[in-house]
Design a protein that fits this description.
The chain has 406 residues and is α+β, with helices and mostly antiparallel strands. The chain has three domains: 208 residues, no CATH class; 74 residues, Alpha-Beta Plaits (2-Layer Sandwich), CATH 3.30.70; 104 residues, Immunoglobulin-like. The strands form five sheets. Strands 8, 9, 10, 12 and 14 form a five-stranded antiparallel sheet that branches. It has a four-stranded antiparallel sheet with strand order 13-11-15-16, with no helix packed on it. The protein is elongated. The chain binds iron/sulfur cluster (SF4) (2 copies). One iron/sulfur cluster binds next to α10 and α11.
């Protein structure tokens, strides 16, 4: 096959476009009525590819965070800075505006070209800022609030700050960010090892280099890969294409730059090694743990606290009343009706008073119920009473209330 037909850059461009488009449309994509991925600000719920995780469910959130961290570590250990070159929106922004600047410089007078570029940058920054907010507020609600002038303080401040930040990035920073301050780039450098995918000048063919400089001119990061593996390299493959083009003209069968797992000079490496296997195992373990936890978690929860506004009262008939607040959360996917009832306690008669029957709670809602526990005879010491939460007769959760005497 002709070398020009084996170009890496077009494949990389398609990939990064798809990745950016995916990030843009993800908040619009729904599974079972929920966004595929969104941390919903109003209900404090993470929608994570079909699963709903309440912020209160800390252990599940922790699994999601750990899963993301280990996934990125795995990708970096095996494929190096492939995220930066092939998937990162920052690289996509830089590509887009480098391309537009080049085209406009060809067809428009300099001043007009600058004005058009700044306008496009402003539009683009607004889109990026909106896109980020859609990961916290559903897009339809965002547009409704924006167009009715009721965006609210938090949304307005977030929108303006992100807009200005992205605009600043597009006008002044772009790839300098990847080269210098990007924290992910720095972390990647620490975790890459002897077997990580990288690009290098093939040491067996180095003598064939005609020093034309095409690989350096084409590099978006402005580095010279002939000097060896460098931290700024984002594995984009543009230098590889440039050299293949040069070699094709010289009627050679291959370019001088190639992808390699580990440096050839040190014998190369194996992508399947102890580190990558260990990381893959941790990822499999975390996914299994997440699925298991989601499948087995309670459909509803209840927490009971002593009411701060009312204490305890002894009645003339010898019984004791304590006031409580119950916080009931429906984690199911449909509205449910709950009943509260006490677990019988030998030697006592216990009654729950207040709106404790047929408590209707919408899906994903957390409701506070004020109720009283009446116990006869009044216990001398603090007495624990177990309160059961039932749905259609089935106990779905329980909590303990501690009764205090006057
Ligand atoms: S050295 Fe090659 S692969 Fe690395 S950033 Fe430059 S062009 Fe891309
Ligand atoms: S493009 Fe190839 S031949 Fe030209 S300088 Fe780079 S490595 Fe050498």
């Amino acid at each position: 096959m002709k070398l020009a037909r084996r170009r890496i850059w077009p494949k990389r461009t398609i990939t990064i476009w798809f990745a950016s488009l995916f990030i843009l449309v993800l908040p619009f994509v729904k599974a079972g009525g929920d966004s595929l991925l969104r941390l919903d600000a109003s209900t404090r719920t993470l929608f994570f590819f079909g699963a709903r995780v309440r912020v209160e469910e800390f252990y599940l959130l922790l699994i999601v965070v750990l899963l993301s961290v280990f996934f990125f570590l795995f990708v970096t250990v095996v494929f190096g800075r492939v995220w930066c070159g092939w998937f990162c929106p920052q690289s996509a922004f830089s590509d887009i505006f480098e391309y537009l600047e080049k085209k406009l410089a060809k067809y428009a007078p300099p001043v007009l070209a600058r004005i058009i570029i700044y306008l496009l940058m402003a539009l683009f920054s607004f889109l990026v800022a909106s896109n980020l907010i859609w990961y916290f507020i559903p897009p339809d609600e965002y547009f409704r609030r924006l167009f009715s002038g009721e965006a609210g303080e938090v949304v307005t401040i977030s929108l303006v700050s992100i807009f200005l930040l992205v605009l600043f990035d597009l006008v002044f920073v772009r790839r300098k960010f990847c080269k210098t301050v990007c924290p992910y780039g720095r972390i990647q450098l620490m975790v890459m090892n002897r077997s990580t995918l990288t690009l290098e000048m093939n040491p067996d063919l180095a003598g064939l280099c005609i020093k034309c400089g095409a690989c350096v001119r084409k590099c978006p990061m402005g580095i010279d890969i002939r000097e060896g593996v460098q931290v700024e390299c984002i594995n984009c493959g543009r230098c590889l294409d440039a050299c293949r083009d040069v070699m094709e003209k010289l009627k050679r069968k291959e370019g001088l730059i190639h992808y390699t797992f580990g440096r050839s000079s040190s014998g190369g490496g194996r992508p399947v090694n102890a580190t990558s296997m260990l990381l893959a195992a941790v990822i499999i373990l975390l996914v299994s743990l997440f699925l298991f936890s989601i499948k087995n978690r309670a459909e509803a929860t209840i927490t009971i606290r002593q009411s701060v506004s009312a204490g305890s009262r002894k009645l003339p008939d010898g019984s004791l009343i304590n006031f409580f607040n119950a916080y009931i959360e429906n984690r199911g996917r449909k509205p449910l009706a709950f009943n509260l009832e006490p677990l019988p306690l030998q030697g006592y008669r216990i009654m729950l008073l207040g709106p404790v029957r047929d408590i209707r709670i919408s899906e994903n809602e957390n409701r506070k119920i004020d109720f009283m526990i009446k116990i006869y005879p009044s216990p001398g010491l603090p007495q624990k009473v177990k309160v059961l939460l039932r749905n259609e007769g089935v106990i779905v959760a329980s909590a303990t209330a501690t009764l205090l005497s006057e």
